[in-house]
Automatic annotation (TrEMBL):
The lineage of its organism: Bacteria, Bacillati, Actinomycetota, Actinomycetes, Kitasatosporales. SUPFAM superfamilies: DNase I-like. The keyword DNA damage applies. One of its GO terms (molecular function) is endonuclease activity. Keywords: DNA damage, DNA repair, Endonuclease, Hydrolase, Magnesium, Metal-binding, Nuclease. It comes from the Bacteria. It holds the Pfam family Exo_endo_phos. InterPro entries: Endo/exonu/phosph_ase_sf (IPR036691), Endo/exonuclease/phosphatase (IPR005135), TDP2-like (IPR051547). Residues 20-236 form the Endonuclease/exonuclease/phosphatase domain. This is Endonuclease/exonuclease/phosphatase family protein. Its cofactor is Mg(2+); Mn(2+).
Length: 248
């Protein structure tokens, strides 16, 4: 498997960044394996789903970030699960955690969002975990697109656990306006669930037009990422993307 490009800044101010999307199941599994997987991917941004939300949740998420040489950017319990971690390469402009409308009897959902800068670039970022219920999920897909459009940035990325395959109507709603990074430049593995027997892709990273996708997929076989750690870390496989963001 070819290696993804490393993070770098180009002479024109554009930036190559690595983005990881990962459902970490509230860190209920092997957190050492989880940290090793994340650190080995050398991400600039980690779009987390199912971050810890209850007792001492900030301390747990901070411990994971520190073990992976990252810091907490935003999210966690304040976004009902989604969070964003980042490397010190990112300059933080602003953050906002968004709680979505609650449907009685269903789990509360939210978005973790931020605007960051890498070198001469400015980038909107959103981490999501969409509903298990198809009609609510479709509405949340629309809210995601509206949120990205309202961030006041030319370039943005979104990623997370969609609870839906690419042929689903919410997934298709997102790809009507965004680039599905796996479809644009497949790399590594495709299927994200389950780690023991991956057979479907329900986790994804999306980018607005103008962002170049250099490669995207499950980093199985990536240096330092072992099958043992992937199976032990959580109940999803991560998605890693290398993206080139234009200066702006």
């Amino acid at each position: 498997m070819p290696l993804l490009p490393n993070s770098r800044t180009e002479p024109d101010g554009s930036a190559v960044i690595r983005v990881l999307s990962y459902n970490i199941r509230s860190m209920r599994d092997d957190t050492d394996a989880l940290a090793r997987v994340i650190k080995s991917c050398a991400p600039d941004l980690v779009l987390v789903q199912e971050a810890p939300r209850f007792f001492r949740w900030r301390k747990k998420l901070a411990r994971l970030a520190r073990a992976a040489d990252l810091v907490i950017l935003t999210g966690g319990a304040t976004a009902a699960g989604p969070a964003i971690l980042c490397s010190l390469r990112a300059t933080i402009e602003r953050t906002e955690d968004v709680l979505l409308p609650l449907t009685p009897g269903l789990h509360r959902r939210g978005f973790a969002t931020a605007v960051v800068r890498f070198a001469g670039t400015r980038l909107g970022v959103l981490s999501c975990h969409l509903s298990l219920q198809k009609d609510e999920r479709y509405e949340q897909g629309g809210m995601l697109l509206d949120r990205l459009a309202g961030m006041g940035v030319e370039h943005a990325i979104a990623g997370g656990d969609l609870n839906e395959r690419p042929d689903g109507r919410t997934f298709r709603r997102l790809t009507d306006g965004l680039t599905d990074c796996w479809a644009a430049a497949p790399w590594g593995g495709e299927h994200t669930w389950t780690p023991a027997d991956p057979y479907q892709r329900i986790d994804a990273i999306f980018a607005t037009k103008g962002i170049e996708v250099l490669g995207c997929g499950v980093p199985a076989g990536h240096p330092g990422v072992t099958g043992t750690d992937l199976r032990a870390a959580t109940d999803h496989l991560p998605v890693l993307a290398a993206l080139k963001v234009p200066a702006g």
